[in-house]
Amino acid sequence: MEKVIYTLWKRPEQTTAEFADSLRTQLAAQLLQAGVRGLQLNIDDAEVAPAAGIRQIAGAPLPDALLQLWLDSAIGLRRAPVDALVAATVARHDAYLVTESEPLRNERYPAAPGQRSYGFAQIALLKKPERLGYPEWLAHWHDGHTPVAIETQSTFEYRQNVVVRALTPGARPYDAIVEECFPPAAMSDPQAFFDAVGDPEKFQRNLDRMMASVGRFLDLGTIDVLATSQYRLA
Predict the structure, then answer these.
(1) CA distance 69 to 39
(2) Which tens digit of pLDDT belongs to each residue from 158-167?
(3) Which CATH number fits domain 2-232: 3.40.50.1970, 3.40.50.720, 3.30.70.100, 3.40.640.10?
(4) d(CA 117, CA 230)
């Protein structure tokens, strides 16, 4: 099987609620009927409005949602029916073939299929700095940064998707797509985000350690970040 991530943008005339409903009901049902093996939606909806402060925009506009699919085959001929369903539902989409690694599984707050997951999922769309070679970049991120991210934040789920290649013409040139899940308080409380509620010194230590680690494999100002509601449907 292969994993494909679609970044999605809603039509101008749609409200956020209308767009979310069209994805969770109409599109999801169509994709499941088409035989996708796994399906998850991440939607920038009203539930994550308190997390507006964590947004980072390197390439405007940010996507309104992400669709994560597992397919028997992602080659163009086999993927075409899925692409057609997506295109009929959204104003614009980019698609990426990725490899997925899950160094921290969500064993604390599992959600039933179709239900909104606990807290929120932060999505970060990354670009490799030109100053780093590809093997060096992966080593800094996977081997160096992964334990730092888990140890300094209140993350309870961590998924790393390395982009193999873009599948749609004109797709934004991302090298990775990261998903980290946090408790609700982390939307607006930095101490909750950095697992240091009521402890300013621990907060500063965790923040400093995290930022130093990020700087080893990313250039600030080059990434896109948004908060989303996570829905696992299959």
Answers:
(1) 5
(2) 999 999 999 9
(3) 3.30.70.100
(4) 5
Amino acid identity, position 225 = V
CB atoms within 10 A of CB 32: 13
pLDDT at residue 17, rounded to an integer: 97
| Distance in angstroms (rounded) separating the CA atoms of residues 189 and 29 | 36
128-186 tens-digit pLDDT: 999 999 999 999 999 999 999 999 999 999 999 999 999 999 999 999 999 999 999 99
Helix (H, G, I), strand (E, B) or coil at 97: strand
SS3 123: strand
Asked whether the beta carbons of 123 and 40 are under 8 A apart, the reply is no
| Nearest-angstrom CA–CA distance, 32 and 56 | 32
CB atoms near residue 155 (< 10 Å): 21
* Every domain of the chain and the residues it spans: 2-232
